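My main concern about presentation is that the manuscript never shows what a single data entry looks like. An entry of this sort, consisting of the sequence and the corresponding backbone structure tokens, reads as follows:
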Amino acid sequence: KGLAAAETAVKNDPESGLASKWYGIMLGLVADFESVKVKIKNSQKIKDALDHANQKLPNDPTVKLALGQWSLKLAGIGFIERQVAKTFFAAPPQASYKDALHFFEESHALKPSPRTSSLIKLTKKKIRLT
């Protein structure tokens, strides 16, 4: 229901940062239950929606957090998923752990929380391991 409501909101007001924010977030939540193929197809939609929301709502910590989570997930995909992505996109979406860290730090600067502190620490460890 949440994804359908967000899709309707974006259709009704394509310029709305809030609609884009929740569309990207809901697509991301649903992706956790989708096949690799569907996840990959939706990854660019998620990024586009969150980028639009970030443009319209530059001081929204939730948008920054969602962009960080998208970057973290994408940076961590394995070889097989990357090969599948290449069948759908000439240039599949890319992100790095440094991108994730940047967004998590922006979110934390806007609204400090234990969750973003933990994500910052986790991402810094991932950067050191790569």
Observations:
- Residues 108 and 114 are 9 Å apart (CA to CA).
- Residues 36-56 form the longest helix (21 residues).
